[in-house]
Amino acid sequence: MKGYERRTGQRLVALGLLGALAFNYPILGLFNRAVTVLGIPLLYAYIFAAWALLIAAMALVVERGRAK
């Protein structure tokens, strides 16, 4: 395994762990409030935004790994 492939794999594992942390109860509990963001409950907005950012970060890591 080449060095950049190994780093890409390590970065994806780190992002997976970050995703597990982001969707764990203590963090979700912070956003479980009776507040809306553009008419969407805060918890749902957080889940969607965190999910989208996690996917974008993974795509960025994979594409940077392919470019090398």
Shape: elongated
User: What is the average per-residue confidence, as pLDDT, rounded to a whole number?
Assistant: 93
Question: What would you report as the Rg, rounded to the nearest angstrom?
Answer: 15 Å
Topology order in helix (H) and strand (E) letters: HHEEH
Number of helices: 3
- Low-pLDDT ranges: none
Main structural class: mainly alpha
Could you tell me how far the N terminus lies from the C terminus, measured between alpha carbons in angstroms? Answer: 14 Å
Assign a percent range to the helix content.
over 70%
Please, how many domains?
Answer: 1
Q: Main sheet?
A: 2 strands, antiparallel
In the sheet with the most strands, the strands line up as 1-2
Description:
By secondary structure, the chain is mostly helical. The chain has one domain. 76% of the residues lie in helices and 6% in strands. The protein contains 3 helices and 2 strands, in the order ααββα. The protein has helices at 3-22, 25-30, 42-67; strands at residues 36-37, 40-41. A two-stranded antiparallel sheet has the order 1-2. Helix 1 packs antiparallel against helix 3 (42-67). The longest helix has 26 residues, at 42-67. The model has no long low-confidence stretch (mean pLDDT 93).
